[in-house]
Every structure is written in structure tokens, then in C-alpha cells.
Design goal:
This protein is mostly helical and 102 residues long. Helices cover 81% and strands 0% of the residues. The longest helix has 32 residues.
Length: 102
Amino acid sequence: MLHLATLTIYLLALLFKLVTHKGIFTGDAAENGEEPEWGKKKAIIVLGLATIVLAYISEKLVGTIEPVGAALAWSHVFIGIIVVFHSGKCCRIRISDCHGLQ
């Protein structure tokens, strides 16, 4: 049921952005004095490569956590909400500590 609510909200947001309030979200970069740093081709290539790397890392994470979760009798919900969430949070905290950021 939650996935239907999420999908509905997403579709309504698309309707808002692309149909009903299109003028708010379109702008001329030259009008604002901004020029894109990357061209469209480079941006698409970088996005594609980032997607591939993220998919690989996600598969490695799932492959690592599944046996541990089975051995400790953790549910998929517990793994998704607690373990995966906090592992990402710990990585961000550790990176901040390494770079002296708050």
C-alpha cells in the first residue's frame, strides 16, 4: 500500500512540474548569467557510470549482509531500516572526521 502512495505522490509531482507549473521550472541559463560546466553528453556518461558503480556496490552490500542476517535471524525490514541506514550514516560521519568537517 505504501508503494502506491509513493508512486501517486511522485506522479502528482511530475504533473505539477511538467504540466501545471511548467514556467516555474524552466529558465534560461544565459538570463541568470550561468553556463553549464559540462555538456549534455558528458553529464549523461557520468550519470551512467555512477549508476553502474552504485549498482555494483549495492549488490556487494546485499551479498555481504544476507548471510549475516540469516545467521542472526534478522528480518529484511530490520536489515533495511537499521543496518543499511546506519552503515551509510557511519560512513558519512567517518568521512567528516577524516576531513575535519562538522
